[in-house]
Design the sequence.
């Protein structure tokens, strides 16, 4: 499918984007990448890299390339409890940016599929937040109630609705919104990667609410999942992209201790609701005949190896 396929990737310099581009290149795709940051030193020469603020994107920057597939990953994130400063940043770099990307894609006559990196934060938090720790997680389904948990979730939902609107008005391409769960990966700013870097630096890792349960998915699996949806989904869809298994923070810490025995852990008390969530990936499996393969144990092992390699350690 991918041989000489013209593909645009927004946010291609990010942790998911780089994995996605590597996989697409191996499959023979021709890629144009957009990202706001300068081109990384180790980026692929065969990829056309466009350093660009997509909030001011002109549709003509997409059209001459004549993409057949667009993967829209570019976004801004903050912690789940967002700060006041994030309000404007979210509006600009999630809502306006995505609107510009969708507008540009709409004007590409040969576009076949638009794959959007959405988020599980779209789901109503009442479904998976509790006053006390839970024994089992809530499996979130694509048909569950939507009530975005924060500004980022609201922005993702807005883009999903824009894609739905564009499909009804014009309908010349398929749109797939992948509601992605908790991503971690090599070179990322995610919490697990930060813990690994702190531990290797001899810094103390602060942990609270170890009973919280999340569906952690490795960036490589996210990239592969996005590719599988592009290959196999033949109509507009919303699809969960997670592992289908929740892991407690205390399990993550135990795995870190196995990989970095001298890690320094400090537990602190923090009041608040407890999360117990994971993806129902039945739809993903049914449509793609694929599911994520990297367990938290394998993923953390790879993170530690990566960070040691970056530091010149064995």
Sequence:
């Amino acid at each position: 499918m991918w041989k000489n396929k013209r593909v645009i990737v927004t946010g291609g310099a990010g942790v998911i984007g780089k994995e996605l581009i590597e996989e697409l290149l191996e499959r023979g795709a021709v890629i144009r990448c957009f990202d706001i940051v300068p081109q990384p030193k180790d980026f692929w020469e065969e990829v056309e890299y466009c350093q660009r603020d997509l909030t001011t994107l002109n549709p003509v920057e997409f059209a001459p390339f004549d993409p057949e597939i667009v993967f829209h990953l570019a976004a801004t994130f903050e912690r789940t409890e967002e700060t006041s400063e994030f309000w404007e940043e979210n509006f600009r770099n999630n809502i306006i940016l995505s609107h510009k990307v969708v507008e540009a894609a709409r004007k590409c006559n040969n576009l076949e599929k638009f794959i959007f990196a959405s988020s599980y934060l779209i789901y109503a938090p009442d479904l998976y937040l509790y006053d006390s720790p839970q024994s089992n997680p809530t499996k979130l389904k694509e048909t569950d109630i939507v009530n975005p948990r924060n500004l980022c979730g609201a922005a993702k939902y807005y883009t999903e609705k824009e894609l739905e609107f564009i499909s009804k008005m014009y309908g010349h391409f398929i749109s797939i919104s992948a509601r992605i769960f908790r991503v971690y990966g090599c070179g990322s700013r995610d919490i697990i990667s930060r813990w690994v870097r702190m531990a290797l630096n001899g810094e103390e890792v602060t942990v609270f609410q170890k009973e919280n349960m999340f569906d952690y998915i490795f960036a490589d699996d996210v990239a592969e999942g996005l590719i599988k949806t592009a290959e196999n989904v033949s109509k507009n869809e919303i699809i969960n992209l997670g592992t289908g298994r929740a892991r407690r923070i205390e399990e993550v810490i135990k795995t870190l201790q196995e990989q970095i025995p001298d890690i320094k852990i400090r537990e602190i008390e923090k009041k608040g609701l407890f999360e117990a969530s994971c993806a129902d990936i039945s739809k993903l499996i049914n449509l793609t005949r694929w599911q994520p393969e990297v367990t938290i144990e394998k993923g953390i092992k790879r993170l530690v190896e990566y960070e040691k390699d970056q530091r010149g350690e064995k």
User: Anything to note?
Assistant: The domain at 6-310 is CATH 3.40.50.720 (Rossmann fold).
